[in-house]
Amino acid sequence: MTIPQIELNSSTDVKAFQEEKLADLLAYLEQNSTFYKDLFTTHNLDFKSIKTLEDLKQVPTTSKTDLQEKNTDFICVTKDKIVDYITTSGTLGDPVTFALTDADLDRLAHNEYLSFLCADGTSEDIYQLMTTMDRRFMAGLAYFLGVRKLGGGIVRVGSGLPELQWDTIKRIAPNAIIAVPSFILRLIAYAENNNIDYKNSSIKKAVCIGEPLRNPDFSLNTLGKKITEKWDIKLYSTYASTEMSTAFTECGEGIGGHHHPGLIIVEFLDENDEPVAEGEPGEVTITTLGVEAMPLLRFKTGDICHHHLEPCPCGRTSLRLGPIIGRKKQMIKYKGTSLYPPAIYDILNSSNKIVNYVVEVFTNDIGTDEILVKLGAKDHSESFEKRLKDHFRAKLRVTPRFEFLPIKEVQKLQFPELSRKPVKFIDKRK
Fold first, then answer.
1. What is the Cα–Cα distance from 275 to 282, expressed in whole angstroms?
2. How many CB atoms lie within 10 A of CB 264?
3. Alpha carbons 385 and 402: distance in angstroms, whole number
4. DSSP secondary structure string for all residues of 82-109
5. What percent of the chain has pLDDT over 70?
6. Does 201 share its domain with 321?
7. Kindly report the CA angle at 200 between 195 and 201, in degrees rounded to 5?
8. Structural domain boundaries enclosing 201
9. Taking the model in full, what pTM does it have?
10. Which residues have CB under 8 Å from 41's CB, separation 6+?
């Protein structure tokens, strides 16, 4: 279990390697993809003219709307080759279906194997899986396959149910958990309320999914601090999506998610689809390598982050993704200030009196963005609300509206029926 050589090579070697893989992908798309054949024909492009990573700029980007409107046109194999179907939410409301072949599942396992290696994983580890494997969800399946390839043990408890999570930890003594960070805080609260000695439990580390743990400078954000101040465990942040079938996971240095060059080409683009410089925020745009059923070329994920090119002290030379700043479509223009939901979450997470929350954005009577934060809090007083507003003004220069609700009511908003992830942001804008 060692770092793959390609992740230790020079940028020149990585570029040459990826250009060989890109040629294979383009030949495959020309042969099998209805969507990309139509795209190239419409724009008078020749698949064979795209030879270098720089040449990719000639190709129009692909969006989530494309995936939704022309979902089946992306499928490159016959139905008898498909062994698994996954869905992800789409921009137009209906889920987008993703198909995977047997080879795609092998690739998914290899990806998560590499991710667990980043997160200092070994065959001696036992991971307690606190994300679902059902409901057509890719993440839980990917983690299961990755741990299996790693040779470690895995306990499939699924999401929620703190009592069952702690009972399982007591019975099996796993040393690692795979969880959404905010759920770790629920685990801690349950343990404290039920006299569970969680600080001396078997758990030593957590691979975290779905929520950022760090600020752009890699310091722990409020959520990360609240976990580690309570519980002395090692946190590894990971970024992934169904569309890319690839994860960017932190190593022990905690300075960004590592790129796996054999699995994906990644670009960082501005509003005009031009590459941004290192240190500037850009939209993560990916080209998948080695995907059989639904490969993607220059797919814009909607996620905004910084990227870093200097080698990591762990020895890997491949680029690293910084924490996701926010989603492009979730950017809020509020009273002259542009902000993303994570900036709001960080302030709300800093208060010990706030138990849970949901941020709603809608269009007001004058056609601009309005923010309403629905709070489940231990303190509903006017003085607490004033302090909270002052904190927002100090950090963001603006303050949203607040609505105090019973904690259980907010929890129902956060965890609607059949939801696979906690909901913190509801966009009601026209």
1. 8
2. 22
3. 8
4. EEEEEEE--TTSSPEEEEEEHHHHHHHH
5. 97
6. yes
7. 85
8. 1-325
9. 0.81
10. none
